[in-house]
Automatic annotation (TrEMBL):
Cofactor binding remark: Binds 1 Mg(2+) ion per subunit.
Organism encoding this protein: Halalkalibacter alkaliphilus
Subunit structure and binding partners: Homodimer.
SUPFAM superfamilies assigned to the protein according to its UniProt record, in alphabetical order: ITPase-like
GO molecular function, one term: ribonucleoside triphosphate phosphatase activity
HAMAP family: Non_canon_purine_NTPase
GO terms, biological process: nucleotide metabolic process; purine nucleoside triphosphate catabolic process
Any Pfam family matching the protein: Ham1p_like
Coiled coil region boundaries: none
Protein's name in the database: dITP/XTP pyrophosphatase
Amino acid sequence: MKEIVIATQNKGKIAEFKQLFEGLEVRSLLDYPTIPDIVEDGMTFAENAAKKAETLATYLNRMVIADDSGLQVDALDGRPGVYSARYAGPSKNDIDNMEKVLRELKDIPSEDRTARFICLIAVASPNQETKIYEGTCEGIISNEARGTNGFGYDPIFYVPDLEKTMAQLTAEEKNKRSHRANALKQLLAHKEEWSS
Ligand SMILES: O=c1nc[nH]c2c1ncn2[C@H]1C[C@H](O)[C@@H](COP(=O)(O)OP(=O)(O)OP(=O)(O)O)O1
Ligand SMILES: [Mg+2]
């Protein structure tokens, strides 16, 4: 079976990529525990995605993809943005991160709680220019957490046309419309750019 390597330690992302890349063997940083942590010090999702993909591609001497993603809330001037994973502190706690967002939006009415998930996927290969693909997914920040599927900010991300939070969707439903699925569609639509 053909395999794809994804430079991520996030179990939620890994589970989604396993479904999205149905038929491929998906490997991740969890399969290479001796590789040192990759510091995400970029100013943009694209920089962080490229750094994660390039670091592991150099280390393994093969093609690697990486996903840098996060939540952008309009009423918070785009925060948590690139700091989504560590929004409430270095422990990267999903519950604390969601509580912080809900607290900051406490007095904001629902029509002003617009937000989007963003996903940048980088494809890096040794001695090749790194390619970047983007996907987004629009929603509203709910007043409270609802649902237990997915990961990260999914329980507070309400999808208006489905009248559910992302965490109330099945994995199949999320994978049809998520920022990650949309970025992957772009990647697959531009295969000629990176598959040489
Ligand atoms: O579909 C999603 N549903 C809910 N939340 C999401 C999603 N996609 C990203 N997110 C949030 C989680 C985390 O707070 C941040 C990603 O941060 P990000 O640095 O890309 O990932 P990470 O540090 O968890 O793992 P890694 O860097 O090893 O891939 O955005
Ligand atoms: Mg990260």
